[in-house]
Amino acid sequence: MFNINNIIRENIKNLKPYSSARDEFKGEASVYLDANENAFGSPLETNYHRYPDPLAHAVKLELSKIKGVPPRNIFLGNGSDEAIDILFRSFCNPGKDNVIIVPPTYGMYEVSANINDITLKRVNLTEDFQLNLEGIAEAIDENTKLIFICSPNNPTGNSINREDVETLLANFNGIVVIDEAYINFSRQKSFIQELTEYANLVVLQTLSKAWGLAGLRVGMAFASEEIIEIFNKVKPPYNINQSSQELALAALKNVTQVNEWIKQILSERDNLVLNIKNFDFVIDIYPSDANFILVKTTDANQVYNHLVNDGIIIRNRNKVELCEGCVRITIGTLEENKALLDSLKSYKN
């Protein structure tokens, strides 16, 4: 049975978080002389001389309407990378604990583990890029605190079988982290609807992909109220700046536009697959639930360099586990995809 008190680090249990001026006074006033801000304003058209809401309540309220999750179950971070780092710092003791990743997968899990001096256990996906449940079960020990699952997966693009994830959630006494950065492009429903079913579930999402806000660096974590309280305890006091909060809030009111872009991206993805599969240097195109495709070629390095010479940048995944010979191609606009195809037509094996 999962019990958060069994996995949280002792120093985090006893941590007294920093109390900012905006934590101690949350009402409205006519004169603010509490936070050592510059009362004269900013050298910009818009004033940013006041510290932002430490918990970005307005953004969480708008997200709550869209996601169907109470604000108390939402954490906002400086990208989802901040949420990943906080998971390590809250639940994993350096030099003692370990986490499990399932390569090929998002590279920041490993980087964050190394930064925090946490042992990383790799259990590769199967040949069809699904979980090796038997291998994961064998890798778990008493010091395993986190299992990271990216679904839809980066760089492969496929969604992970839901039943397999539920098996882990039901049987693992640590936290299962499901990274849904690309969920808006997927036919699979989000796991955020399962938060009340699994106390050990953390779902990561982002405004960087479908929402087109990569430059704002706003990531989301959805979890039980207990886990979110720990996130808020550990995070820096003002981790989401005022401009990002304002712009994110404005963007979240344009769901219709985002949904239209998603339809266009999915249509362009299908069109790109139909065209690319006809090239003689293409061995396979893997099924994708994301805004990119993974393409296995006869020579990934040559394909990549050819496109670079034409000013087109894709991602060479040739050195990634199970992705030998592969390149990852993000779905662009109609014009960008045409430029890609025109360049590939001139590629010589």
Automatic annotation (TrEMBL):
The Aminotransferase class I/classII large domain, residue ranges: 47-344
EC number: 2.6.1.9
Record keywords, A-Z: Amino-acid biosynthesis, Aminotransferase, Histidine biosynthesis, Pyridoxal phosphate, Transferase
Pathway field: Amino-acid biosynthesis; L-histidine biosynthesis; L-histidine from 5-phospho-alpha-D-ribose 1-diphosphate: step 7/9; Lipid metabolism
Record-listed N6-(pyridoxal phosphate)lysine modification sites: 209
Keyword Amino-acid biosynthesis among UniProt keywords: yes
Pfam families in the record: Aminotran_1_2
One annotated GO molecular function: histidinol-phosphate transaminase activity
PROSITE patterns registered for this protein in UniProt: AA_TRANSFER_CLASS_2
Cofactor(s) listed in the protein's UniProt record: pyridoxal 5'-phosphate
Reactions mediated catalytically: L-histidinol phosphate + 2-oxoglutarate = 3-(imidazol-4-yl)-2-oxopropyl phosphate + L-glutamate
Family the UniProt entry places it in: Belongs to the class-II pyridoxal-phosphate-dependent aminotransferase family. Histidinol-phosphate aminotransferase subfamily.
Summary of subunit composition and partner proteins: Homodimer.
PANTHER family membership: HISTIDINOL-PHOSPHATE AMINOTRANSFERASE (PTHR42885:SF2), HISTIDINOL-PHOSPHATE AMINOTRANSFERASE-RELATED (PTHR42885)
UniProt-listed HAMAP family: HisC_aminotrans_2
Full protein name: Histidinol-phosphate aminotransferase
Organism: Pseudopedobacter beijingensis
Lineage of the organism: Bacteria, Pseudomonadati, Bacteroidota, Sphingobacteriia, Sphingobacteriales
